[in-house]
Amino acid sequence: MFGFFKAKKQVIQSPTDGQLVSLESVQDEVFSTKLAGDGLAIIPISNTFVAPVSGVLTKIFSTNHAFSIQTTTGLEVLVHIGLDTVNLNGEGFKRLATEGDKVSVGDPIVSADIEFIKSKGKDIITPIVFNHEKELTLSILNARTIREGETLMEVTIK
User: Fold this and answer.
1) Tell me: the pLDDT tens digits for 96-122?
2) Catalytic choice (80, 85, 128, 155)
3) In angstroms, how far is the first alpha carbon of the chain from the final one?
C-alpha cells in the first residue's frame, strides 16, 4: 500500500568493451573525488559506446565526447569518453544518436576513434557517473575485463 517509499533498483550495463577500474583511479579530481557523482570507470578497447541503461538521451555534448541518459527511475547516467577530450573539439568522435531520443540498453550513441584520441595525448579512461538528488547505494563488481552489455553494477535509489 505504501510502495512509493520502496527503494528502486537500476541495473547498469557496460557501454563498451574494456577494463573496469575504480572511479578513484581516474586522474581527474572532478571524477576521482566524485564531484561529478559516484560511479566507476572503464579503460575502453572498443570504439563504440552504447546506452548502458534505457531511457531518454538527455544530452550529447557538442563535441560528442560525453552523453547522459535519464532513466524512468529518475537516475541520470553520464558517460564521459576520455579526459580533456573536450579539447579535441569533436575530432575523433561521431554521434550515432540524437539528443532527445528514447534509447534502449545497447543502442549505439557515440563512436570514438580510441587510437586517434591516444595519439593526441589524451587519456581514454571513461568515467561513468550518476547524478541523483536521492541517496544511492552502488553494488560494484570487482575490477576486471568487461564486454559491452555485461552488467557493470546495480544502483539502489532510496
Assistant:
1) 999 999 999 999 999 999 999 999 999
2) 80
3) 17
Q: Is 80 a catalytic residue?
A: yes
133: pLDDT strictly greater than 70: no
In this prediction the pTM is 0.89
DSSP letter at 5 equals G
Please state the domain count of the chain.
Answer: 1
Q: Are 23 and 138 in contact (CB under 8 A)?
A: no
Q: Domain span at residue 142?
A: 7-157
Say how far apart CA 33 and CA 7 lie, in whole Å: 26
Domain harbouring 103, CATH code: 2.70.70.10
Alpha-carbon distance 16 to 19, whole Å?
Answer: 10
Residue 2 domain-assigned? no
